[in-house]
Amino acid sequence: MNPDKPLLPQLFKGIALFTPGGDLIYCIDPGKKGRWHLHLCAFLQEILDLPEPPHFLVPCYTATIDHWLDPRTQQVRTFAEAYPLVMRHQAVLNAVFGTGDLVWQAAPWQEGLCDRMVLSSYRSSFPQLWEDHDLIVRLEFSQAQVSPQPIAAIQKAEPKTQGFVLRLFVAGHSVNTERILQNLHELLERSLKHPYTLKVVDVLTNPEQAELDQVSATPTLVKVWPHPIRRMAGDLDNVEKILQMLGTKKATL
Question: What is the pTM (predicted TM-score) of this model?
């Protein structure tokens, strides 16, 4: 390695996404303009042949770093933060971001988002994420800057499952949210002949997923799979409309 030719810019913003098995995909942006959780998830889907982008890894398995110039002292400062589930990877983070023996700060644990039982529920559908492929991939920012077209193309890959993939978008947790979720679970248990995955997405903490699924109002139920994708916003008490969206005949009740 040539010490006169650093691999990293002096000022940059970086983000790393780990899998439960220890694989890593990361990105570095000298312009410090982007947030690329969606891109990292999409490329991870492509690399590991996943049924859909693993957005449930964010933020539980992420780490972020910011090399910034203090305007008052004109000194370069570093802010580095990792979530508890990836704190054990500090040596790897320091290697890919060139930060020596930097001690990373632990990001606050987010109740409800990083519950280990909830995360483990995805293991049967995404077994590749729990395997260690010795994978460390740097996503170039030029790739991350590409318009949503490559993500859409990746999403067209058909999941290797006969079940349903559903997302319920809500704004915060409330009694109404709990009621909707309970009613949906009861309806799906009665009506679907195939297995299903119902993921609850809080748009207040995960706006990127809402943007990706083109959700502009809550509550909204999205049928991600099987295609075609369908959305239903507002009145989620209308059983007939939900079954129609799912393509399930009312007679199955």
Answer: 0.54
Quote the strand ranges of 97-145, DSSP E. Answer: 105-106, 136-139
User: Cβ–Cβ contacts within 10 Å for residue 23, how many?
Assistant: 20
DSSP β-ladder status, 164-170 and 220-225: antiparallel
Which pairs with CB-CB distance under 8 Å and at least 24 residues apart come from 210-216?
210/169, 211/38, 212/38, 212/53, 212/55, 212/148, 212/151, 213/167, 213/169, 215/169
Task: Render pLDDT for 60-114 as a digit per residue (tens, 0 to 9).
Answer: 899 998 877 777 887 878 889 998 889 999 999 998 888 888 899 988 776 666 7
CA distance 225 to 165: 5
Long-range contact set of residues 88-91: C-beta below 8 Å, sequence gap at least 24: 89/18, 89/22, 89/24, 89/63
